């Protein structure tokens, strides 16, 4: 088909400008603004493996939610109270925990952020409160292989470096909680759009904290039978009811040590967002992961950010590498930590792939260097330590699904 003919067959919304609503994986208030946008007739979509990039389906001249994204009702109350939506056609919002890769240059970015201790604690209570907070923080991220604190710090640092390249607006969770109306009005002004006072009040009334909490508490999965066939133990785990209500004094008392570490470790980034912090610790280098995973080379941060990779010496980081490779040698430990940290199946697959890449670079380094100081390089690959990891992991999942210990 000729190119011009193809263009005439593509729906107008395919060419809409994109605004990015972005924040760390940890709860930070993104879903509040997400719900407000939907109430105001602004199309918001996420891109994930379940929906193939199609969160919305056209039904006549209106949109309905793709059945595979039913879980979104847990975070956006309006999706449960309304089935069909009329969206404006001049721009749409991509919502999620998106890393800067260059595609976002020149676009409007709304970055939602929260005090890192509060946001990490909230995620732990939602996803992983059967393990200690400290253990949860140590489970590596499935993409970066960093612990939870450094992963939060890198995500925010990477986006802060985008400020000269994008149209930037920061929304702090604490501002939304203290004055939701003013926060929403500032976002609307940033987007250069207008709504009546009544429309704004209505959107706020459908997006308040208590409304969202009730939607999460009352959410009942309505997965269609055809989708249940491919749902797995991890997706069911993600659907569990986890809203534990307000943080208890016990939660706060038991996490004082972690709180102090988090705020010192992220002090530089926190100051840039205007959070008052005292004390500091060395700025994370993100090594050895930054030197051994291709993911880092795809980040749109700047070539100078990778300068330390050029002088990276693996021998200096063997202890850190050894700690990560525990997940390679003990698939049962990997399975337990994945479940304990609330990872869904696709995230576990990504974690395995990142470990595979890191192990491959480790072995390649010592094979080329023929370095006798290698820490048991051969022991990390014997008996198919990682080459069969996917197979062994799937068997463990199947045993869990069948109720076999």
Q: What distinguishing features does this structure have?
A:
405 residues, globular, alpha/beta, five-stranded parallel β-sheet, 2 domains, disordered N terminus, Rossmann fold, two-stranded antiparallel ribbon, 21 helices, 8% strand
Radius of gyration: 23 Å
Number of domains: 2
Strand content: 5-15%
What ranges have pLDDT less than 50 throughout 5 or more consecutive residues?
A: 1-15, 376-387
Largest sheet: 5 strands, parallel
Number of helices: 21
Succession of helices and strands: HEHEEEHEEHHHEHHHHHHHHHHHHHHH
Structural class: alpha/beta
N/C terminus separation: 56 Å
Mean pLDDT: 83
CATH architectural label of the largest domain: 3-Layer(aba) Sandwich
Name the shape in a single word: globular
CATH topology of the largest domain: Rossmann fold
Instruction: Please report the total strand number as a whole number.
Output: 7
The percent range for helix content is: 40-55%
Across the major sheet, the strand order is 2-5-1-6-7
CATH class of the largest domain: Alpha Beta
